[in-house]
Amino acid sequence: MALTELNLEFKPETPKTIKDEWSHIGVVASGDLEVLIEKENALKGKIKIHILTTVVGFDDVWETVVKKFIDKTGLSGVKVSINDNAATPAVVIRRLQQAVDNGGGLQ
Amino acid sequence: MKINWEDLQSKSFYQATARERAYGMVDKDTFKEFLGPRDKMTSPHLLILGEAVEFDDGITVGVGKIKKHPVFVISQEGKFVGGALGEVNGAKMAYTMKLALKTYEKMKEKYGSVPDDKKPICIVSFDSGGVRLHEANAGLLMHSESMETIWELQNKVPYIAITGSTIGAYGAQGFVCLSADVVLANDFGRIGLTGPEVIQQEVGKDEFDASDRALIWRTMGARSKYILGDVDYLLKDTIGTFRDTIVNIVDEPMSKISKTRKVGSPQLVEENLEVVKLAAEKKIKDSKDLWIIYGNENVDQIPEMPQEKFLSVVKRRPRRI
Predict the structure, then answer these.
(1) How far is Cα B85 from Cα B62, in angstroms, rounded to an integer?
(2) pLDDT digits 0-9 by tens, B114-127
(3) Out of B37, B47, B50, whose CB is closest to A36?
(4) By the CB < 8 Å criterion, does A38 face chain B?
(5) Which among B147, B162, B159 is positioned nearest to B119, based on CA atoms?
(6) Residue B321's pLDDT is what?
(7) Which of A101, B165, B185, B194 would be a feasible disulfide site paired with B222, CB 3.0-4.6 Å?
(8) Domain locations along chain A
């Protein structure tokens, strides 16, 4: 069974970016995920998200969860890489928020 | 990204992630990670098998400073594939050890001798169940490379092993852990070769009942290992306590640090075999019987009593060497 790979791109209405150059949080334990946020100048106002997950058939849920987070926070100008091992949507949102906080917050 | 060093000092060692442990054990803000998450060096084998991958492959390695010592830290993450050793994280482990050796040799070449207050140190925080079965041969190769390096580190670079995280040090990593000059543990530390489940599966429930938590802990847990002399320091569960103990050890001369070594000479092998002989002679059925032989009283209470009380009443296996 292969891993599911998702590449998403969004353009939030009120773009904000993290303070630090990069940020990382989480461990790929069972039911958990890791989030790596890296600033990229070429992505001004936009956000690229790369997801690698063990779960098959939840592509729409991923898109909804991530879109909801980005609409709420306006996170942009960054590349987000996610390695996931069957985390639930609540955990995903929590980890994304932690990663943003760990990167010095939004500005 | 910033990790708050002061907060880490009072954080539980058992609950900390591999990265937090590595950052917290060296001096403030001196830790420099090799091949961190941004380098995205994941395991190629897990990817093919459709298993979840991690950017640091479940290990944090790097260099920091304690006083004037360059300190090479290897910290395993037990939550990712049970902390098991594969090709990538194994190479990170083995080659960080090699870097400690190389630093020692470079210092010796440049200055003629390595002073006690400046010698390199190698610290490994274990949290691993052994070799990763998805990439077994590659993992074993890296295991043997680290064993070889440990042999070369002997009497040159102090190698300090720590067990005190979720998984402990099992399988191949049990060897690597006990080859250290000094072994530190908290009450959650475990060292073993074969894990409880595997013993039960292979030899039967009469031999070892894997559902009996108390039996597991009094056989493989840190307190039993402390009585037997496999663990040298039994510590309180904060990163700060571990750090303070390491800070006190590192300035000692190498000959004094390596006094607590458990393997590495025929005399030590003989001394270890005496325990095996004793266990066979007295027909030991449980760790408790062994504790009584070494002079402990109230053995039923030993696993439960608070750590300070345990340390004040415990009698340990006498060492000759």
Answers:
(1) 17
(2) 999 999 999 999 99
(3) B37
(4) yes
(5) B159
(6) 74
(7) B185
(8) 4-102
pLDDT, one tens digit per residue, over B2-25 is: 789 999 999 999 999 999 999 999
| Region for residue B310 given its phi and psi (left: phi exceeds 0; alpha: psi -120 to 50; beta: otherwise) | alpha
Q: Delimit the domains of chain B by residue range.
A: 5-191+230-262
Q: Give the residue on A whose Cα is nearest the Cα of B76.
A: A27
pLDDT at A107 (0 to 100): 87
Q: What is the pLDDT of residue A2?
A: 85
**How would you classify the pairing of strands B59-66 and B32-34?**
antiparallel
**Which of B40, B80, B127 should one mutate to test binding to chain A, selecting the residue with the greatest count of A CBs within 10 A?**
B80
Superfamily of domain B5-191+230-262 in CATH is 2-enoyl-CoA Hydratase; Chain A, domain 1 (3.90.226.10)
Can you tell me which residue has the tokens 């990167």?
Answer: A103
Q: How confident is the model at residue B37 (pLDDT cuts 50, 70, 90)?
A: very high
Nearest to B53 among A24, A32, A83 (CB): A83
